Amino acid sequence: MTGTRIALVTGATQGLGLALVEGLAVRMRPSDRVYLTGRDADRVASRARRLAVASDGAEVVGRLLDVADPDSVRAAADAIAREHGGIDIVLSNAAARQSPDRTPADEVDAIAETNNHGTLRMLRAFTPILRAGGRFLVVASSFGRLGHLDPRVRPPFDGARSLDDVEAVVEAWRRAVHDGSASALGWPNWLNIPSKVAQVAAVRVVARQRRERDLAEGTFVAAVCPGLIDTGASRPWFTDMSRAQTPAQAASALLDLALDPSPDPAMYGELVQFGKVLPWRAELPPEARAAVRVVPV
Questions:
Q1: Of residues 57 and 74, which shows the higher confidence score?
Q2: Which of 23, 51, 70, 119 has its CA 20 to 30 A from that of 161?
Q3: Which one has a higher pLDDT value, 293 or 79?
Q4: Is the predicted pLDDT of residue 290 greater than 60, yes or no?
Q5: Residue 271 belongs to what domain range?
Q6: Residue 48 in domain
Q7: Given pLDDT bands bounded at 50, 70 and 90, which one contains residue 282?
Q8: Position 235 pLDDT exceeds 80
Q9: Does residue 100 lie within any of the structural domains?
Q10: Is 88 domain-assigned?
Q11: Mind listing the pLDDT tens digit for each residue in 52-65?
């Protein structure tokens, strides 16, 4: 990527998102611009002001963007297309926080709207304005592999051929959680698993549609797993946080990939963790599921 580069991070007022903006600001050039986005105007403005003063690198600009609001996503994409003619780096990171003290029915709407429909909205709005050589990374999780799901609920994700297909599966899952049939159908109690699988499925759909052109132009689309991060959102779910990273540590590998001038084409469209592909269809051993302490409800 040459010339002035434009980057945008969603969910960027705290945690990993804020660390990603900080890292981009340091690693990119003074002529580049990084949009720090979120849904709280005061927090967006205060974080952007602080980074604008602290960074000697790229310009940091705050912008309201609520991925749960279709109009907000479209407006942000339209404004960037109008102001810059396109975008070079998109890090789709926004996610709704979950609590083991609440039931899945209490939380599934926020998770579906933010993590899943939010990801779909970002893909639909921003991939059309992604410039040649650009990067679009969706922050997902190692839980976003089919092996974390009951075999009964895998086929709709694996067979999705459009973002509309993924959207339909998310809505079927959401309805099942609300009507109490989710467990009988094979859905796990922990909402994070189907939510992350749906994010990775969405990336795979877009990559399938764009692969030939993107690889020819040096454009890169992927889902990324930052690994376990020590935050208030993750602590309630895991029994062992001794190996958890700080947000800044977790951001490092993601930034390496986003700024790599020639990422490995084998990683295109895949779920990537620390530079390696996590196979979509791999069967996972039981201990892989035991790594998380899910509180049953």
A1: 74
A2: 70
A3: 79
A4: no
A5: 6-277
A6: yes
A7: confident
A8: no
A9: yes
A10: yes
A11: 876 688 999 999 99
Q: Which residue has the tokens 């933010």?
A: 114
Taking each helix axis from N to C end, the angle separating 192-217 and 163-179, rounded to the nearest 10 degrees, works out to 180
Q: Which residues contact 26 (CB under 8 A, 6 or more apart)?
A: 55, 56, 57
pTM here is 0.93
Q: What is the CATH number of the domain that holds 92?
A: 3.40.50.720
Taking a C-beta distance cutoff of 8 angstroms, is the pair 85, 100 a contact? no
What's the first-to-final CA gap in the chain, in angstroms?
Answer: 49
For residues 166 and 156, give the distance between their C-alpha atoms in angstroms, rounded to a whole number: 8
Report phi then psi at 29, rounded to 5.
-90, 160
Is residue 230 pLDDT above 70, yes or no? yes
Query: In the chain, what percentage of residues exceed pLDDT 70?
Result: 94
Buried b (16+ CB within 10 A) or exposed e, 86-123: ebbbbbbbbbbebeeeeebeebbebbbbbbbbbbbbbb
293 domain residue, yes or no: no
* 3-class DSSP string for the chain: CCCCCEEEECCCCCHHHHHHHHHHHHHCCCCCEEEEEECCHHHHHHHHHHHHHHCCCCEEEEEECCCCCHHHHHHHHHHHHHHHCCEEEEEECCCCCCCCCCCHHHHHHHHHHHHHHHHHHHHHHHHHHEEEEEEEEEECCHHHCHHHCCHHHCHHHHCCCCHHHHHHHHHHHHHHHHHCCHHHHCCCCCCHHHHHHHHHHHHHHHHHHHHHHHHHHCCEEEEECCCCECCCCCHHHCCCCCCCECHHHHHHHHHHHHHCCCCCHHHCCCEEECCEEECCCCCCCHHHHCCCCCCCC
Mean pLDDT for 175-189 is 97
